[in-house]
Amino acid sequence: MAAKSETSDISNEMRKKVQEAFLELKEELKESCIVLDDIAAEVINWTVGFELLVQLTNFPLSIYTISSFGDDNSSNHSFVDSCNKIVFFLGDFVYAYEETIKRILSLYPFKECIIYCSLSELSHTLHPNFKKLQFLAIKPFGAFTTEFSKIMEKTWKSKAKETRGLSPIVVISHFPALSFSLLVNGIFVLNNSYDTFPNTKVLSESPRSGDENNFPETPLPLLRLIHTLKNFLSFFNLKEDLYVLGNTSKFIANQLVNVGKAIQSANASVSNMSEYESPKTIVSLILIDRTLDLVSPMLHSDNLIDRIENVLSGSNGSHYTMDRRIDMSIISKDSKMVNPDSINLKVMEDNIPQNVVNLSGNLAHPNDKLVAGLVESLLLKKEKEALNEVRKKIVDVMTKEKIPFAMPKMGSVNIKQLVSLIEVLYKENQFQFYKLNNFLQINVGVVQALQSSSNSKWDELSGIEKILLLSVEDKSQSLLSRIIELMSQSNSDGTPSFTIKDIICLSIMIFSLVGDGSTAFEKRELDLFRELLLKRIIDLVDTPQSLEGWLGMELLHRLQALNSRTDKSSEEYQYDKKRLVLEVEDRVSDLISYLKDLENLRSSMVEYKSLMKTGRMGSTYIPLVAQIINNIFDPKQTELRDLEHVSSNTGVGSYLRSFSILALKAKAKPSDNSVVIIFVVGGITANEIREIRDSFKQKTVLLIGSTSLATSTLMYQLSLNVK
Fold first, then answer.
1. What's the chain's average pLDDT?
2. pLDDT at residue 334 tops 50
């Protein structure tokens, strides 16, 4: 298909441009100490691979994560003293690491410090820390880099053990190549915006587009996303033609226009200065609020990447990262988990190719075509098809490498069969283990996810979700009453069959599902739901892990302390309990309020009011993002009534157009441009990506982007803590 080929070509060009950006740093990185934050590490791992970084520095043991410098203990950084230069790659604001950078510079005798940051000069001038610099009455373009460099150099001079006879130099450079990860062809994530989540309310001080000086106080996650998205577009010389669906997306779009105007103004006022090249290609950028459809992230889908992302821990120990930690001990008792405080890179010698071999597995291997192709299959195929692909790839590899094995029986693939094949591949030829290490990691990850999800009631919850989706139009029993019934079910040992996290995720799913405002749940049901939730929290029936993402550790610890007290009959205990109950009641009330917001979030829409579409097989859930793509490229759809077009034009022309805004909306369509980017603010699921790709048959180049790969755990944490 032409579109697929063109999308692949653009993806290859994108990856090549990022590689070129790093190659230009070859001389600066040579024999340097390199320090990465978690965001930069993930971007590099997904887009160009750590192999490139190792080649450029020519000193692999001097690559560290910034979190490994968490205290003054330098024993874990034995190679730092042999480096003359330290280079930071940061995906977040430089201000986020100000104290850590000061500490590092005061501990080691470097001659030079270079900081490459994904975020621009302009974005830093809008950071609250920069705004505190009151002594800068006039803050010209370049003021941030100048002032921050001075602060670092001053710290260095006053605290460094020695500087080898030279005055220390600190250089800060904008490096937009750190803005995103390219997962597979045509699919990208802005890694530093993982914690951005749309608000269900209309954002206050929503900026008007076209005013370069109109930058209202913006929460850091949103500020980071707005400027990272602009960096991404500008890095590839793209000019955005904006369409939005949702309050937060509209806020972002207006700010993108304002940022563009501010950049133009800065470029015009400073000679020979350009943070961005002039855009050459106009692309339709469609921004969609995740909160308009929270059904898909809560589903236990038949997609292997969804399963892997949901049940395995992140590579840095959390769910706020795309990559997953794969325990290779399933095939090798000698395998050890990599220390999260350092990047353990091993370069193989002798006749083994010079690959980076990591015995702690992960999903990202962009330079291994076999593995990258397998990851794409896991992402874009249904689970059964993907498992057949996994088995076929293993058999093909062993046949090619002439490894003796018993041909597995055809038919359904099971865990035992995959484990047997993987063990043969490892045990029969240790050389192949290193040569095919990356390939083995993905296969072990599949097995691990299948094993872990069987213990986490994945299939049982999937069945419940299917019943709920089929019961939307059932008037005899409400969806909420079905969830209340689940709350009373118990295991044989008396523990609840479903955790509070399970219950809340199912609740978010059904309230979002009926988000057209036509189905209001009865007050008595909501009151009972509230009462049952409150009791389970106060009595600490659930595990701490199930409650932590919502309540937070501080409140959870106080609940645990209350439940462990022995003076339960005392007045002091009753007083403390009453205060704590009131606090928990507030949290539960906030949850109910949030669910009610979801219940009405699409009520004003015309085309996307319902997520259920009627077909020959009855009503079926169709993800909002898939509906939008289908409508955009439907030749019969002459007008997109719910998508709002945000013009980047300002001045008299814009004023005159306001008199014919309806005509403008009818005329402008995202399909007018040859490249379309659909971007979900708040995360997109692997299953949604698959559905979009399956239904997309156009010649237009379609890029799919988001702030994260959405999982139920991530959505549970973000949606209940959104500010």
1. 81
2. no
Q: What is the CATH number of domain 21-178?
A: 3.40.50
Q: How far apart are CA 550 and CA 713, in angstroms?
A: 10
CB hemisphere CA count around 559 (13 angstroms): 24
Cβ-contact 179, 190 below 8 angstroms: yes
Q: How far, in Å, CA of 178 to CA of 228, rounded? A: 9
Mean pLDDT, range 695-712, rounded to an integer: 89
For residues 184-189, give the mean pLDDT: 93
* One fold for 21-178 and 181-294+620-719: yes
pLDDT tens readout for residues 233-291: 999 999 999 999 999 999 999 999 988 888 777 666 554 444 555 667 899 999 999 99
CATH 3.40.50.1910 matches 181-294+620-719? yes
- Which helix H or strand E contains 195, and what residues bound it? none
pLDDT, average across residues 436-444: 87
Q: Where do the domains of the chain lie?
A: 21-178, 181-294+620-719, 304-455, 458-599
The mean pLDDT value for 701-708 works out to: 94
Q: With b meaning 16 or more CB within 10 Å and e meaning fewer, what string describes 180-201?
A: bbbbbbbbbbbbbbbbbbbbbe
Q: Please give the single-letter amino acid code of residue 692.
A: I
- C-alpha gyration radius of the chain: 27
With tokens 């022309």, the residue in question is 653
Q: How far apart are CA 199 and CA 201, in angstroms?
A: 5
Q: Return the structure tokens found at 330.
A: 């399933």
Q: How many CB atoms lie within 10 A of CB 635?
A: 6
64 contacts 98 by C-beta, under 8 angstroms? no
3-state SS string for 400-441: HCCCCCCCCCCCCCCHHHHHHHHHHHHHCCHHHHHHCHHHHH
Q: 283 with 241: CB under 8 angstroms?
A: yes
What are 701's strand-pairing partners?
Answer: 675
Q: What is the pLDDT of residues 534-546, one digit of tens each?
A: 999 988 888 787 7
Please give the average per-residue pLDDT across 67-79, as a whole number.
64
The least confident of 516-520, 616-620, 657-661 is 657-661
For residue 184, what is the enclosing H or E element? strand 181-184
Instruction: Give yes or no for a contact between 66 and 97, defined as CB atoms under 8 angstroms apart.
Output: yes
Share of the chain above pLDDT 70, in %: 80
Query: What's the pLDDT band for 640 if we cut at 50, 70, 90?
Result: confident
Which residue has tokens 């600190």?
Answer: 170
List, in sequence order, every beta strand (DSSP E) within 10-79.
Answer: 33-36, 63-65
Round to whole Å and give the CA distance between 76 and 33.
13
Q: How far is residue 534's CA from residue 559's CA, in Å, rounded to a whole number? A: 12
Tokens representing 663 are 């005509």
Nearest C-alpha neighbor of 540 from the set 566, 518, 562: 562
3-class SS of residue 149: helix
pTM equals: 0.89
Residues paired with residue 675 on neighbouring β-strands, in sequence order: 701
For residue 340, give both structure tokens.
């999260």
- Pairing of the two strands 644-646 and 675-681: unpaired
With 0-12 CB in 10 A as exposed, 13-18 as middle and 19+ as buried, what is 219? middle
